[in-house]
Write a structure and sequence with these properties.
The protein is an alpha/beta fold and about 300 residues long. It has one domain: Rossmann fold. It is about 25% helix and about 10% strand. Strands 3-2-4-5-9-8-6 form a seven-stranded mixed β-sheet. Strands 1-7 form a two-stranded parallel sheet. Helix 4 crosses helix 5. The longest helix is centred in the last third of the chain and has 20 residues. The protein is globular, with a radius of gyration of 18 Å. The N terminus is likely disordered.
Length: about 300
Amino acid sequence: MKTAMAIGCVALTATALLAGPQQGQPPVRLPSIQFPSALPSGGPQGRGPQGRGQQSGQPSFRQFPPRFTPLDRTEATNLEPGQLPYDGRYVFARLRYQMAADLGGFGGRGGGRRGGRSQGPPWSHDYPRAEVNFMKILKEITSIDPYIGPIGGAIVDIGSPDLFTYPVSYMSEPGYWTQTDAEAANLRAYLLKGGFIIFDDFRGVDWDNFETQMKRVLPDLRFVDLELSHPIFHSFFDVATLDFKQYYDRGQPRFVGVFLGNDPSKRLLLVANYNNDVGEYWEFSDTGWNAIDLTNEAFKLGVNYIVYGLTH
């Protein structure tokens, strides 16, 4: 991957040199983004009009540059926890869970690490490119000094006591998440002791499993659709709109939260990017596949999530 902050090409043009808001100062204010209703067609098999849920006749979300395809995603060869010893820095923590055997190798979307669109187990999707790129942005525009090495961050089992080392964690594809009672208890303790989880990359009927698993973690929880006025959308960047252009162009995303004690005046325990895949924008931010404005919006959301999780 070309490091030259090709992500800087993804630019956050007016914002890449801005520091985070200091105490007493307002958050960074950005103009409203007018998302395009149609983008150029094209793309490899599985990502065109018939791929990944798009309807026939709709434009594909981006054009792929010559000699660069998803088959180049070869960075991740080790999906085991414990690769990155804790040293006190902020580290992106990706949650690892077991997938039910009856899902048949990720529902046909790829059980092995390579082959077609295969991306390995669902919890690992976009690893490590998403966190590698995202942590560079976080380091450049905030005072946070995260780990920015080649493995992106830490892989953490949902039932591990090591989880409590990481104040913010990230789960990909919670539609395929399964857990034991002990793992659910570990996640419950993590959230109630101050942890914050970002759930990303799920859609459609994936919600049913996500809701089932979350109710094992917090049996009395109530899901709340977050409004633009919530502080998480203003913790660093002043996000202008939640009319976010979902990566696969399949409808309106929702930003869903759960509050401590189900009280919206208290701390937010998690944010769920439902019908959305913010991490996909992070992963391919240095390729030129996507419109810069769209990738910038995904980075703004990510930065706000991290800052909120570290300060609440």
